[in-house]
Amino acid sequence: MKYIISIKEKYRMIIGYTGMITMGLAVVMLLPLLVLPAYPEEMFAARYFLISGVLTGMIGLLAAKELKKERSSRLTLQDGGVIVVLSWVITTTFSTLPFLFEGNLNFTQAMFESVSGWTTTGLSVVDVTETPQVFLLWRSIMQFFGGAGLSVIMISAIIGPHGVGFYNAEGRTDQLLPNVSKTAKMIMMIYSGYLIGAVILYILAGMPWFDAINHGMAALSTGGFSTQTDSIGHYQSFLIEAITIVLMVIGTTNFVIHYGIISGKVKLAMKNGEVRFFVFLLGIIIPLVSVVSLIPYYGNVSEGLRITIFEFVSALTTTGFSTVGYSDWPVAPVFIMMVLMLIGGGTGSTAGGMKLYRIYLLSKSLWWELVRFGKPKNSVPQYYVYKGLDKLYVTEKHLRETGNFVVLYMITYVIGVSIFLFYGVSLKDAMFEFGSSIGTVGLSLGVTSPELPRGMLWTQIVGMMLGRLEFLVVFYGGITIIQDIKRFSRLNH
């Protein structure tokens, strides 16, 4: 009987916190309306967001009433996993409402655009030349808040220090400050400060103010939604491309590193394994690809190098901005871009992919194993890497968890590619397009479009969600819910 009561109380708390997050979403839904004074001809779209916001807010309020007034109990990692899964499903689903009320997208297309936004992927099924500005801003707002993560937003604004389980369940383990609530608030302050700087720089570089706001949010969130059909290439500006590269690198860097640099711990931040691995990868790949493939392809050294730098930074940071099309590129650079998309950006950042830290750790493990053969058998070496601003001594558990994640990630990738092949997509396009989905990148060879079969769109939707929530969170959350339902049913009978 006590267990049944505890289960009921637990899910009242989970529903309550999910309701609070839903109420927060209702407020976010109203933000695109701020642009309407500048575009009075789009005032008709206000009702789509107002109705969506009111409906979302009412449902959130009803759910939030389940939360007891005293919020002294901490959220466990398992509770956080359930809330993460429920919150992301609810958030992406309710975010389709403005698109559905407008009527230009069906549910699958609207869900695709919503998931692509919140997961900071950037693949799109809308025509930006025909889409009202208020909807373009809505897409960018989804990416901006999705980049920060629901846990960071809601802990900093509502849940407070008791949300450590929610924070950890969303794949964030590093804390800037001892208190998780202060950490979340600091992340939002840093993130918002970068956005203000990004918008100012873009405007000074000649980008229109509306485009500057959208591209600033998309670049920092490593999202890649653009207000132009040909993305950053539309502006034909070296300065805008350079600013975008800096913003993409900022977005893909762990917030702990940003805090370390701001706090004056620059040398310690530069010891971070992810930072060094990021520089190492691009330092090798960019000169190699540009000299061997793209400089000969474009017939110009400066153009080939400029394109290589931008596109490969965009791929590794999982941003998805582009300056050129590459559907007719040689196979080698396309394949290398695909590998970079799967590797992804930094942990604790806005980026997707398997994460630089995991690949770096496995690479170091391989090196340690090779070196170990030359050491005495009775030696007990201590291996470590720099994670965040701290030295982390690596154990078998760390390597096992990392290896398991990478294997699971690649199995999911193979399944997604196989589904694309089933629909008649070529192997190259299937590997690139689903790699872009699961890596939450947004680059495309032209496969993704509104005309895609629903099965392919839903395959990408699932890939984007799993890529953003890091697999194990989804599995843990789902398993916890199933186990609780089974136990509750058994005890009731």
Structure, explained:
The chain has helices spanning 2-30, 46-64, 77-94, 97-102, 107-118, 133-148, 150-159, 164-169, 180-204, 209-220, 238-251, 255-262, 266-270, 273-298, 301-316, 331-343, 356-372, 396-422, 427-438, 454-469, 472-492; strands spanning 384-387, 390-393. It is mostly helical and 493 residues long. Strand 1 (384-387) and strand 2 form a beta hairpin. It is globular and about 60 Å long. The mean pLDDT is 87.
Mean pLDDT: 87
Total number of helical segments?
21
* Strand segment count: 2
Helix proportion: 55-70%
Please state the overall shape, judged from the principal axes of the Cα atoms. globular
Order of helices and strands: HHHHHHHHHHHHHHHHHEEHHHH
Query: Which regions contain 5 or more consecutive residues with pLDDT less than 50?
Result: none
Q: Give the neighbour order of strands across the main sheet.
A: 1-2
Distance between the termini: 12 Å
Structural class call reads mainly alpha
